[in-house]
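Fill in residues.
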């Protein structure tokens, strides 16, 4: 699965492929790109009461692990409840969530196949599944930003990929709260998505370059409880290279961990596949064609696993 930079870059490309009339102004573009980060900000919620943090993290896990078809169905049904002037923003956010899912589900098997390969090859990494996933995602992030924009995280900080407005936060929060309630039976205050975005932005400001002392301090603190600090894995490095082992650019064979199907596809190949699928998928999501949306999703979750 990709991380924040890869999702943003995909969102920029995907936004140009949407039909005319959608994303008619800059705020709608910003709304789409924020929605394009999907449930990920919820997993970064940390400046809240423990119960609220657990609820946000649980919802993020459920949204990644379950059928996105139900989430998109609820979002589409809710759009008509907004004031007319807010409906275009709500539509943009919904389409952003759809884009997030599409890239996740198509690239996820490559990332997870590498995780399992590393765990099998190195006994000392058997308990580092989550950290290996974060490390591969971060590696792909920095490579893709350099490959597509010739920028590092100094020129294009991860925190800058989370632009928003108070109106976007409000509408996104209401959409996510309805999904939480209608799909998962979880009560989430509508303000929590915007607060999660704020926390997600802060996380990257704290751990990414040019920050040095604080990431080391946080890593040492985390190492007291975990063998493999997540901060070290999630932190982006400053990279100026067109090479990236995690992106499988030399087309090594790998097996989908869920279907065992063999492939030599690179991350770039899969990114392109997702863009090819996007015009049809987005048009069906925007039209509320639930049957065809569900058919394209095929019961596959964000990880690329049947659910």
């Amino acid at each position: 699965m990709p991380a924040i930079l890869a999702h943003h870059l995909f969102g920029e490309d995907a936004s140009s492929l949407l039909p005319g009339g959608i994303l008619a102004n800059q705020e709608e573009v910003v709304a789409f790109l924020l929605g394009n980060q999907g449930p990920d900000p919820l997993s970064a919620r940390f400046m809240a009461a423990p119960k609220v943090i657990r609820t946000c993290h649980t919802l993020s896990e459920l949204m990644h692990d379950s059928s996105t078809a139900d989430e998109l169905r609820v979002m589409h049904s809710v759009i008509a409840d907004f004031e007319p002037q807010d409906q275009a923003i709500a539509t943009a956010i919904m389409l952003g969530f759809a884009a997030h899912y599409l890239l996740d589900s198509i690239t996820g098997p490559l990332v997870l196949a590498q995780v399992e390969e590393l765990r099998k090859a190195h006994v000392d990494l058997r308990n580092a599944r989550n950290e290996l996933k974060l490390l591969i995602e971060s590696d792909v992030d920095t490579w893709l930003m350099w490959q597509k924009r010739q920028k590092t995280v100094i020129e294009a900080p991860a925190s800058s990929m989370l632009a928003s407005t108070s109106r976007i936060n409000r509408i996104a929060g209401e959409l996510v709260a309805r999904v939480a309630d209608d799909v998962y039976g979880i009560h989430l205050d509508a303000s929590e998505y915007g607060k999660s975005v704020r926390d997600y932005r802060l996380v990257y400001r704290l751990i990414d370059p040019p920050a040095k002392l604080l990431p080391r301090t946080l890593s040492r603190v985390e190492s007291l409880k975990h063998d493999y600090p997540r901060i070290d894995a999630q932190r982006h490095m400053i990279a100026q290279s067109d090479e990236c082992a995690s992106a499988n650019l030399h087309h090594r064979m790998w097996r989908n961990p869920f279907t065992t199907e063999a492939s030599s596809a690179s991350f770039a190949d899969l990114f392109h596949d997702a863009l090819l699928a996007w015009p049809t998928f987005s048009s069906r999501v925007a039209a509320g064609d639930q049957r065809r949306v569900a058919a394209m999703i095929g019961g596959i979750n964000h990880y690329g696993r049947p659910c």
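Residues 217-225 have pLDDT under 50 and may be disordered.
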